[in-house]
Amino acid sequence: MGEKGKGWSLGLAALLGPAAFWLGVFFLLPLLLILAYSFGTSGIYGGLTLGFNPSNYLKVFDPLYLEITVRTLVIAFINTLLCLALGYPLAYFIALRGGRWKTALLILVMVPFWTSLLIRAYAWVVILGGNGIANRTLQFLGITDGPISLIFTPQAVLMGMVYSYLPFMILPLYATLERFDTSLKEAAHDLGAGRWHAFWRVTFPLSMPGVIAGSILVFIPSAGEFVIPNLLGGSQTVLLGNLIQQQFLNARDWAFGSALAVMLAVLLLGAIMFYVRRIGTEKLGGV
Amino acid sequence: MRGRNSPGFVHKGVSRLPDRALLLMAALIYIFLYAPILVLMVFSFNEARSTQVWEGFSTRWYVALWNDQSVLDAFYNSLIVGGTSTIVATAIGTLTALALTRYRFRGKSFADSTIYAATVMPEIVVGVSLLAFFVAVGFGLGLTTIIIAHVAFNISFVTIVVRARLSGMDESIEEAAQDLGANPVTTFLRVTLPLILPGVMAGALLAFTLSFDDFVITFFVAGVGSSTLPLKIYSMIKFGVSPVINALSTVILVATMILILGGSRFFMGKEDR
User: Fold this and answer.
1) CATH number of this structure's domain A56-285, picked from the four choices 1.10.10.410, 3.30.530.20, 1.10.3720.10, 3.90.226.10
2) At what angle do helices A154-178 and B16-43 cross, to 10 degrees?
3) Out of A88-97, A178-187, A211-220, B177-186, which region has the weakest mean confidence (pLDDT)?
4) Hey, which residues 188-227 in chain B have their CB within 8 Å of chain A?
5) Is residue B1 part of a domain?
6) Does A268 sit within 8 Å of B122, measured CB to CB?
């Protein structure tokens, strides 16, 4: 083990074998399977014949489904921006102004982070529900006369997403800002840069690895999300995740469902690779 | 604009007002993070069946939760799935991390990419592809398929965490052990493993949490009679909002807080050494 192995050996095969088997059979093979299915043809009664049928991918561009894809990407994008806008000040505060409360403040972010996403979405089901606190507050303030439908709207979905994914943004941002050398900002001040100028020209660019890592951690799951739109969006706000789920479990059109899943995976992994190439992997390594 | 000129005070003087604004924003964001959870907890003690209108204090929903056998069954299932998948994934992930840090070989970048791809692949894609796979090979859905799926996504997370620990390790200690006549297995058990144990523990903790909380992938690979806790919570919310869900959420939240506080003590203590 001490010598640096080069090339394949029995020891290496023993170390790598179990993972190669498990990820090969239960991760890569299933992905290849739905790739094959996505070019198949679904029968009327749920069967599937393999072949080379591009119609499932063409169906994605049907205006009805294209609208869902666009809506998904827009919501995921707005969610990422909102998480960044809310998460950055907090991460900055904890990392650079936290002082001796740093650990406690960080743990306060981690509690919701480790708590089941379902419970956090449920909290908003209750708050935004017909007679919930949100509605009663609006009536109390005289803004509305009776209960209005706050839940089952795109805004409710967005609310649930920002709430659920905010910690995913804060933690990587904190990790980069924590290592930030404040003397760089002081140097900028000494050279005459104003507060905002110093922030946008020095602090923010240096925190880009955290911004990128946080954005990836928020954008990817929110683009594939189906629990939050299921609970808070109802039938009004169907996202790609819901559409895929419906194709597999209700409509039983596995060929179309596979095409949608493949498209989602390619879209998201493509976006990550694009970003990682631009920023360089070594910068992301520490986050 | 800048009141004081002595170097030590310049920045404090400059940033006093924004500091207040920053403090206010931070406080508001913490309120945003905790208010919904607190509302949830408060209404778990509601006398009435409502989760929205307060009618008095009661612990009846906790009694109802305790007597709900299906919740307990789901909890046991989650423990079985979490425990088994954590043990298997931690063992496999640790070996993989060793292979990736100690060896250079053909196909290494493919192995790296596969491990990272498994962590960033949207859960719904993993879920439906595993469902398609299990149906295609005729593997009946149940606890076994859930465990298989959880091991598959946990291997990558354990590998990444353990690898971070291994890459910071001094290899000459291992070489010294081998020079003194220890065989590779003894070297691993007596030298390497104790040194990377904090990393392995952290990986195992992460794996258990991810498994215990997972909903999406589990949703697709669970059979009819094999509900885990997240699946149970989901069906309870879908079936109808009730303070029992609030009580269950409160229990989970309190348990999470205790585990995090305990965990941070444990890991911080290690750092201090």
Assistant:
1) 1.10.3720.10
2) 130
3) A178-187
4) 188, 192, 209, 213, 215-216, 220
5) no
6) yes
CB contact under 8 A, A122 and B43: no
Does B207 map to a domain?
Answer: yes
CA angle (A190 as vertex; A186, A193 as ends), nearest 5: 90
Task: Work out the percent of chain A whose per-residue pLDDT is above 90.
Answer: 41
| Domain boundaries, given as residue ranges, for chain A | 56-285
Question: Which residue range forms the structural domain that includes residue B221?
Answer: 69-272
A vs B: CB pairs below 8 A: 267
Domain contains B266: yes
Do residue B57 and residue B77 come from a single domain? no
Whether ipTM tops 0.90, in short, is: no
Contact B215 A12 (CB under 8 A): no
**Tens-place pLDDT, residues B178-226:** 888 888 888 888 888 888 898 999 899 989 989 999 999 999 999 887 8
How far does CA B30 lie from the centroid of its chain? 21
Do residues A121 and A231 make contact, with C-beta atoms less than 8 angstroms apart? yes
Tokens of A142: 């005289």
* Count of domains forming chain B: 2
Strand pairing class (A5-6; B103-104): parallel
CA A213 vs. chain centroid, Å, equals 11
Question: Is position B2 within any domain?
Answer: no
| Count of beta carbons in the 10 Å neighbourhood of residue A96 | 17
Whether residue B122 and residue A264 make contact (CB cut-off 8 A), yes or no, is: yes
Q: Quick one: pLDDT at residue B267?
A: 64
Residues of B in contact with A115 (CB under 8 A): 37, 252-253, 256
Residues of chain A positioned with their CB less than 8 A from the CB of B245: 122
